[in-house]
Amino acid sequence: MLVSGNTQSIKGLLIGGGVAIYPHGWTSMEVQQACGNLSGSYKFGTCTFYWAFYLTAGGAALTLITAMFSCCASTPKRDRPYDDV
């Protein structure tokens, strides 16, 4: 479980990193033609984020949260008063 939790947290960090650097590409000519010359790195111009960006960011956050659950689940429990139930 610890290996899968660590792998999952690495995946969450990679997805989150991709979401964080995604607006850096707005300096390209295609984006400036579509969003106006006001767009730049981390500047919207006339464009906006749509639901896919927010869902990806939320998915990255949920991946990191579930990775924490997985790492916590793999720790050995010393005291189990309800083992016989």
UniProtKB/TrEMBL annotation:
The keyword Lyase does not apply. The chain crosses the membrane at residues 49-72. Pfam families: L_HMGIC_fpl. This is Lipoma HMGIC fusion partner-like protein. It comes from the Eukaryota. GO terms for cellular component: membrane. It comes from Magallana gigas (Pacific oyster). It is a multi-pass membrane protein. Keywords: Membrane, Transmembrane, Transmembrane helix. The keyword Phosphoprotein does not apply. It is found in: Membrane.
